[in-house]
Amino acid sequence: MRRLLKPFVSPETYRALIYYLVALCLGVVAFALLIAGWTTTLVLAITPLVVPLLIGLRAGVGLLAQAQASVARDLLSTQTGPAALTTGTGFWSRGFNVLKDPAFWKQQAHLLLAWPIALVVLSVVGFALQLLSLPIWYRWADNSDVFGRSNVDTLAETLPFAAAGLALLVLMVHLLGPLSSISRRLATRLLAGEAEGVVRSPAERRERAASAR
Q1: Is residue 5 in a domain?
Q2: Cα 138 vs. chain centroid, distance in angstroms?
Q3: Quick one: which H or E segment has residue 85?
Q4: How far is CA 138 from CA 157, 161, 198, in A?
Q5: pLDDT of residue 6
Q6: Disulfide: which of 120, 125, 143, 190 matches 106 by Cβ 3.0-4.6 Å?
């Protein structure tokens, strides 16, 4: 029994849940940015405006990737340091260097991959908690319609749902460890690289200089 309940008292469990909550929020913002940014960039690809659009998209992706990397470092203990910008020697070079920067594409991949995992984890945990708490709130459910059933109107009838919710919650909490490992490896592979010709934010440069001393 102690082994079964151990994840509930482990700080790593709650760090992982906070990480997935933040990852989901950042992922929604990133998805909207990528859809709007790439749509506008492709529409104006044959005009000189494509260069500032690419630079702006690169900056947005870099900032979101740095936010994800910071959360991963603090909550998953990863070694991540994504580049903030891609540089160039001229107007056209600054734009097209973005397309040639591997870090830019890796950061986008992480932005798109991290939030579906977070969505699944949080959805399952939320559903389990909803089932588990059914004995408390079933009285106020509209027309006693609970999870597609219209005959759950006594405390005894809610107990199987609560038991299923408890079992699902225990299972999900035990799966948080392996899922966190996957997220950790994902962040390390996609947010730790530094392409040639990229510059980091001033705060990150200071952090790297301090750690090198």
Answers
A1: no
A2: 33
A3: strand 85-86
A4: 10, 11, 56
A5: 85
A6: 190
- Structural domain of 88: 11-199
**202: pLDDT strictly greater than 50:** no
Structure token pair of residue 32: 């909207």
Condensed to tens digits (0 to 9), the pLDDT of residues 161-194 reads: 899 999 999 999 999 999 999 999 999 999 975 5
What pLDDT score does 150 carry?
Answer: 55
Q: What is the pTM of this model?
A: 0.80
Q: Where are the alpha helices (DSSP H) in 10-49?
A: 11-43
For β-strands 198-199 and 85-86, DSSP reports them as: antiparallel
Average pLDDT over residues 10-19: 93
Q: How far apart are alpha carbons 195 and 23 in whole angstroms?
A: 24
**H helix runs in 44-154, sequence order:** 50-76, 91-100, 102-132, 134-137
pLDDT greater at residue 83 or residue 54: 54
Report if residue 61 sits inside a domain. yes
Mark 178-195 as b/e (b = at least 16 C-beta within 10 Å).
ebbeebbebbbebbbbee
CA 152 from chain centre, in angstroms, equals 36
Would residue 204 count as lying in a domain?
Answer: no
Structural domain count of the chain = 1
DSSP letters along 147-162, please? TTBS---SHHHHHHHH
Q: State the Cα–Cα distance between residues 51 and 14, nearest whole angstrom.
A: 42
